Amino acid sequence: MSRPPRHLLRRLLPWLLVAATVHLLAVWALPRVIMWRLSAMATPQERAGVYLPPMTDHTQRRVVMPSPDLLYATCALDVAERPMRIRVDLRTPGYSSVALYAANSDNYFVLNDRQAGDAPVDLVLIGPKAYAQAPAIPPGARTVTAPSNKSLLLMRVLVADYGAQKDVVEAARRTLRCEPL
Q1: pLDDT the model gives residue 124
Q2: 102 and 146 Cβ atoms separated by less than 8 Å
Q3: pLDDT number for residue 134
Q4: Angle formed at CA 8 by CA 7 and CA 9, multiple of 5 degrees
Q5: How confident is the model at residue 35, as a pLDDT?
Q6: Domain residues of the chain, as ranges?
Q7: Which of 28, 52, 82, 156 has a Cα at 20 to 30 A from 175?
Q8: CA distance 70 to 22
Q9: The 3-state secondary structure of 81-120, one letter per residue
Q10: 169 to each of 27, 62, 77, 94, 100, how far by Cα in Å?
């Protein structure tokens, strides 16, 4: 004879609740742990404003599967106390972009070279909470509100032939500035 379904439900319910709780914690916590780990692994050079790593090759695996066709630049941004100003010239021979990631790894802003057009990018990143004194936004700057106090900026520049394009792509990458406003 089989047991009634109600008895089975009473036995499965605690396991289902544990599984649902573990799943929800993983979905909420895992992205935050990943971003915390990336931040903890950062060298002092990487934490001190703009970081320009060398061209990606097979030895670089801090970030899962980096593209060997992309040249990267990063900025660790903290907007808890004051806004940050981000300036960069995305005019390169190929595709280039800047992307902003929140503390939970959510991508909340992307701008590529086509969207930027012929003008350099000028952004003011504002934190999720109001500041004691309202920041003066520079004329022509675009305001972006971060969903968390800590963010990561990732600049990508597509490079077809690094040897041939090195001077142009490196010059563009070196225009990146991340400074307190």
Answers
A1: 95
A2: yes
A3: 77
A4: 90
A5: 64
A6: 1-41, 44-180
A7: 82
A8: 36
A9: CCCEEEEECCCCCCCEEEEEEECCCCEEEEEEHHHHCCCC
A10: 37, 23, 23, 9, 20
Long-range CB contact pairs, 133-139, < 8 A, 24+: 135/82, 135/83, 135/181, 136/181, 138/85, 138/181
Residue 146 is predicted with a pLDDT of 95
Rounded Cα distance between 167 and 171, Å, is 6
Output the six-digit token pair for 98: 């800047």
Arithmetic mean of pLDDT, 74-98: 91
> What values do phi and psi take at 135, rounded to 5?
-75, 145
For 88, residues 6+ apart whose C-beta sits below 8 A from its C-beta are 98, 120, 121, 155, 175, 176, 177
CB neighbour list of residue 159: distance below 8 Å, 6 or more residues apart: 55, 69, 70, 71, 94, 165, 169
Taking the C-alpha atoms of residue 76 and residue 101, their distance in angstroms, rounded to an integer, is 10
Tens of pLDDT along 148-179?
A: 998 989 999 998 888 888 899 999 989 999 99
- Structure confidence at residue 1 (pLDDT): 53
Q: Could you say which of 1.50.10.10, 3.20.20.100, 3.40.50.80, 2.60.40.1610 is the CATH number of the domain covering 44-180?
A: 2.60.40.1610
